[in-house]
Every structure is written in structure tokens, then in C-alpha cells.
Amino acid sequence: MNYTKPNDNEHNDSPEDWLNTALVFTQALGEILADTEGVVIVPRGDAKNIGYEKVIVSHFEGQVHITECTDDNLEHGDRVMVFRENPN
């Protein structure tokens, strides 16, 4: 498989390639998402191996988090606010 260097036909991705790419994407998400903001994702392709049907990718206190989404009313792409405790 070659996801990380598409211009090199001889390259085969290593676990280190995947890790470095994931770190760059995580950093980008931290820049895109405001603090306490998240987005619902239905994992597809190789990401299905995460073990959850739906996840919330969120930015909270300077870190990007991935948590299981159990709310049946939320769909892929929905934006959500994430709090450690119920704000009500």
C-alpha cells in the first residue's frame, strides 16, 4: 500500500509513515477545530478497524481527541460541542 508517497511507485508505506501522517493530520485538525468543537465521523475504509460505528473527533484544551459517539441522532459530518461535564 502506498498512501503517503503517491509519486513514488516503488514506495510501500511503513507503520512509521502512517504514524507521521496521522500526526500531521491531527495537528491540522487542532488548527481547524475551535476549542470544545468536534465533528462526527463514520469511519470508512482502513479506519473501520477503530472498533466504533461512529466517533467524535474533537479539540479540547489543546489536544485532539477521538471518542465513541453513541447518539443515534448524530450523523457523519455533524458539528458538536464537547464538554467534560454537562454544562446544564
Strand order of the largest sheet: 3-2-1-4
Number of helices: 1
Range of strand content? 15-25%
Using only C-alpha atoms, the radius of gyration works out to 15 Å
State mean pLDDT (0 to 100 scale). 89
In whole angstroms, the N-to-C terminal distance is 48 Å
Number of domains: 1
Largest sheet: 4 strands, antiparallel
Derived structural class: alpha+beta
Q: What shape does the CA trace take?
A: globular
**Proportion in helices:** 10-25%
Number of strands: 4
User: What string, H for helix and E for strand, traces the elements in order?
Assistant: HEEEE
Low-confidence spans: pLDDT under 50, at least 5 residues?
none
Describe this structure in words.
It is a single chain. This protein has 88 residues and is of the alpha+beta class. It has one domain (15-81). The protein has 1 helix and 4 strands. A hairpin with a 2-residue loop joins strand 2 (55-60) and strand 3 (63-68). The chain is globular, with a radius of gyration of 15 Å.
What's this entry about, in short?
The protein is an alpha+beta fold and 88 residues long. The protein has one helix and four strands, in the order H-E-E-E-E.
List the defining traits of the structure above.
88 residues; alpha+beta; four-stranded antiparallel beta sheet; 1 helix; 4 strands; globular
Task: Itemize the secondary structure elements and their pairings.
Layout: H1 15-32, E1 37-41, E2 55-60, E3 63-68, E4 79-81
Antiparallel strand pairs: 1-2, 1-4, 2-3
